[in-house]
Amino acid sequence: MSNKKLKEYKVILASASPRRQQFFGEMEIDFVVHPIHVNEIYPDHLKGPQISDYLAELKAAGYEKRLENRDILITSDTVVWHNGISLAKPADLDEAFSMLKTLSNDWHEVITSVCLTTNKSQQTVNQSTRVKFKELSHWEMDHYIRNYNPFDKAGGYGIQDWIGLIGIEEIQGSYTNVVGLPTQLVYKTLMAMVG
């Protein structure tokens, strides 16, 4: 089995995201879940992947339990980057609508950073995927916001949701990255860490 060496480690996924947990399960990686909650505030001068890198590392720094030998802590953050602006999780209906409106009929980047921390080292990797929405109608945006839950998603949408199925015309790069975890990159990095 390709991840035989990984089974000698305790992988700690510091995320409450059901999508990230599902991906780890589907990659056949044994893991435990210990969500870490931090104020996702970052310096204003950071751009694109610098933001998601910073926040993924900030979450790792917030892990109070001292990591033991053969523990691998995994923290991550996803940023939607559009026209030089980071679109975070919308605070309310109006902000969610505004985000979808600005993404409509345009390309944007979805950047996910993953920080892998042991008691001896730390490595942060990130991946960017370009996503193109069709021109979304007022009804489509309103329907999505009122019937789904965009408030826990960067940019106010989930590619795996209804809005992604009917609205996304094209993606360039990793699909799983847009969902919230660049699975191939994470697996490759974990395998390199455990040798």
UniProtKB/TrEMBL annotation:
Domain of life the protein comes from: Bacteria
GO cellular component: cytoplasm
InterPro entries: ITPase-like_fam, Maf-like
Reaction catalyzed: dTTP + H2O = dTMP + diphosphate + H(+); UTP + H2O = UMP + diphosphate + H(+)
Pfam families with a match to the protein in the record: Maf
Enzyme Commission number(s) from the entry: 3.6.1.9
Annotated site, Important for substrate specificity, chain positions: R19, T78, Q160
Compartments, record wording: Cytoplasm
Gene Ontology terms describing biological process: nucleotide metabolic process
Keyword set, alphabetical order: Cytoplasm, Hydrolase, Nucleotide metabolism
Chief site of localization: cytoplasm
Catalytic residues (positions): D77
One MF term in the entry's GO annotations: UTP diphosphatase activity
SUPFAM superfamilies: ITPase-like
Cofactor(s) needed by this chain: a divalent metal cation
Family: Belongs to the Maf family. YhdE subfamily.
PANTHER family, per the entry: BIFUNCTIONAL DTTP/UTP PYROPHOSPHATASE/METHYLTRANSFERASE PROTEIN-RELATED, BIFUNCTIONAL DTTP_UTP PYROPHOSPHATASE_METHYLTRANSFERASE PROTEIN-RELATED
Classification via HAMAP family: Maf
Functional description taken from the UniProt entry: Nucleoside triphosphate pyrophosphatase that hydrolyzes dTTP and UTP. May have a dual role in cell division arrest and in preventing the incorporation of modified nucleotides into cellular nucleic acids.
Protein name as annotated: dTTP/UTP pyrophosphatase
Organism classification: Bacteria, Pseudomonadati, Bacteroidota, Flavobacteriia, Flavobacteriales
